[in-house]
Amino acid sequence: MTSGAPPAAAVVRSAPRPPVPTSMRRRRLVALAGLLVLLVGCCFASVAVGAKEIGIGDVWRAFVAYTGTENDIVIRSLRVPRTIVGVLAGAALGLAGALIQGHTRNPLADPGLLGVNAGAALVVVIGIYVFGVTSLLGYVWFAFAGAFAAAVAVFVLGSMGRGGPTPVTLALAGAAVTAMLGAFTSAIVLVDVQTLDAYRFWAVGALAGRDAAVAAQVAPFIGAGTLIAFASAPALNALALGDDVATSLGHDVRRTRFVGVVAITLLAGAATAACGPIAFVGLVVPHVARSFTGPDFRWLLPVSALLGAVLLLVADVVGRVVVRPAELQVGIVLALVGGPFFVWLVRRRKMVQV
Amino acid sequence: MALAVSLPPARVPGRRALRIGPVSLVWRPRVALVGLAGVAVLVLGLALNVGIGEVRISVPDVLITLLGGGDPGQRFIVVGLRLPRSLTGALVGAALAGAGAITQAIVRNPLASPDVIGFTAGASAAAVFVIVLGAGFGSVGFTASVVGLPLAALIGGLLSAFAIYALAWRKGVQGFRLVLVGIGINAMLIAVVEWLLVIAQVTDAARAYTWINGSLNGRGWEHVVPVAVALAVLVPAALVLAHVLGALQLSDDSARGLGIPVDKARTLLLLTAVGLCSVATASAGPLAFVALVAPQIAQRAVGAARPPITISLIFGAALTVIADLLARTAFGAELPVGIVTAVIGAPYLLYLIARQGRRTRA
Question: What is the dihedral of CA A49, A55, A57, A59, to 10 degrees?
Fold first, then answer.
């Protein structure tokens, strides 16, 4: 018995994996496939629908036979970049939301909890007030710098407590830093009415006027963040059992959390830089996704990304249609349309706790 | 039943019990000390805030006047002009902090303050609605918007809280569902506020923005009375109801097993929280962050397992009064007090989080 016993690790390896119920697996696959189809449809709608009515034939011609007509220019230089920014930002926010809720184990956490939105807002306001920046392209780097600095501050402050960055200290440090940065932003905005005038349009969150340059600026960051996020899914599953259990399973909790914060900062910072602070996607998408996939992050992350992209595009298209020829900003439409839908969903389904 | 009555009263080892008739409390010196210190800071802050202004009155003179002495001129300035503002601040801060302590304890989540789960967003939306659209009707609309603002905010806050509660109701209200519904409603109402801010004239937007941040500017006795009444009614109710909070910290099932009527207790406690923060918001706007930070600071100051209601009340009042003092005096222009509550509350909370860790590690 003593000599024949295999090493402990081998026992663990050879143990059969607990089978995933087929109904669960089917539901996950259906959700993933359905969302992919939905996303393609939304991209098409986002290109085809807008203030200027363009027939489907003309839309098609703008892609295959570009001749430089007005329609072609509208499609290629306005609507396609805008759609790309929407997909990137939506996916990034959905992913970042799932990550932050996993790392803080708090259903109330959204990417803004790391101070990303508040930091971006403060630095953008400083940019407007001190440097007189008023162009969308100018805001991008200010917003990114602010988002990054705030996230670093939250992580460092949240790690000073016992046992490094625990869910509670991260959440509280995030809330405290967010409130403080928001206070500084408010103070500047209230002192200078012109800054308020520029700031209030950025603060709503919009996709209008985002061109290919914006998409190119944020795409590398979102790409890197997405890779890190997917790579950290198994570790997040372990963290969901609690820090102690994760440690005993061989995970370096501090390092995992640090990597997670880097990913969240890249994703949410880039999204905020591209289209302003949008709170709703990151907060709500993971809850909806979780009700389809269950708590397994390997499924939750991709589904959250797709769902975020779909939600942002739908809201953007609706915002273009409802008050034609004017537009309603995507941040407003998201919450006004998404809010009731979310409440309905919460009432109907049994939501899976974080 | 008879068995339960004949049991000796519960004891906490090593702690003396305070018994007054049927009520018994555990005597905790630290809670009493922290509470007294909080009250001292509050009184000092109030006296300073009342004393500083165009006519300076020293702290002892303010205290003497408040106790009934002083000359008529000082009496007029202190009681007639300056006290109502400071008192509004103290009461509003206390009410928000109390509401925050209750919601955080019920939901078992430090982020679940009333302004996160949508209880104050309705008040904000209603108030901004009145400010922005009321201005469209010229001077009549302006007057109506000034007079009707607190009322609109009160109705808006109560309506949103009622809507959240009703929508979260499915054979009882479960904490998690309540929070999620609150998030959804909160997001919608904030979107309405943002939309109103975008379509408003920029001067109205600035006025609305000031209100959203919470301001004590020009608050008189008519703002003090409603909050005082709400506190006088709701705080005793909350303290009586709060004896079940300890059991609610476990889980719903454990609390039921201990004989707590979970749904009823939670509903009543939530109602008191809604009442407190709605009235407070109507008086001074949704002072950002007080409801979140004061209970968390109080919890760490007394070393409790959940936010303590009484200490939270004191800390909320002290925080708001000191913030108002700074908002009026420390900067060139007067800032809305809500901005300053965040600037002094946040670093203190961060300091407490960091210090807690070091002591344990040592």
Answer: -40
